[in-house]
From TrEMBL:
Pathway: Cofactor biosynthesis; molybdopterin biosynthesis. Belongs to the MoaC family. The lineage of its organism: Bacteria, Bacillati, Chloroflexota, Ktedonobacteria, Ktedonobacterales. The active site is at D133. It catalyses: (8S)-3',8-cyclo-7,8-dihydroguanosine 5'-triphosphate = cyclic pyranopterin phosphate + diphosphate. Keywords: Lyase, Molybdenum cofactor biosynthesis. It comes from Dictyobacter formicarum. Homohexamer; trimer of dimers. Residues 20-155 form the Molybdopterin cofactor biosynthesis C (MoaC) domain. Catalyzes the conversion of (8S)-3',8-cyclo-7,8-dihydroguanosine 5'-triphosphate to cyclic pyranopterin monophosphate (cPMP). Transmembrane segments: none annotated. It is an enzyme of class 4 (lyase). This is Cyclic pyranopterin monophosphate synthase. InterPro entries: MoaC (IPR023045), MoaC_bact/euk (IPR047594), MoaC_sf (IPR036522), MoCo_biosynth_MoaA/MoaC (IPR050105), Mopterin_CF_biosynth-C_dom (IPR002820).
Amino acid sequence: MNTSEKGQLTHLDEQGNIHMVDVTNRPETVREAIAHGRVRMQPETIHLIENNQISKGSVLEVAKIAGIMAAKQTPQIIPLCHPLPMTHIDLQFTFESEAGLIFIEGRTRTNYKTGVDVEALTAVTVAALTIYDMCKGVDTTITLEQAYIAQKSGGKSGTVTFQPA
């Protein structure tokens, strides 16, 4: 559980009321985040994607654009998220074809007072959802799996890494 220095949830004030975290007095620093996620499907579907044979078009290019656009729109989706001046957003995809897996890595960066982890996670999950949408006509077994923040840096906590079991 992510809590403030007082042991309270960061989006609750002392009285327990919801509020947007005040970052006015925080210094601007370079903040970066890396999110990971994966999409599981039939190996045959992976083959279609790799050979650009999905009728809706280039699955990974569309997923990349969707993820980038989503990261930039995170404050419109997540109610208490700060609007950030994003300086970098990138998504990369790798395959484990025989296992039917697409791994997604999203990287975000800003020079601001608060982190870009939610933006990285938004990019990865929307990219995964886009892969689902583009391939659902040929594969009804697609699952979106294990999206998480693998690393974030630039804030008062320094660099934080995480790898799920």
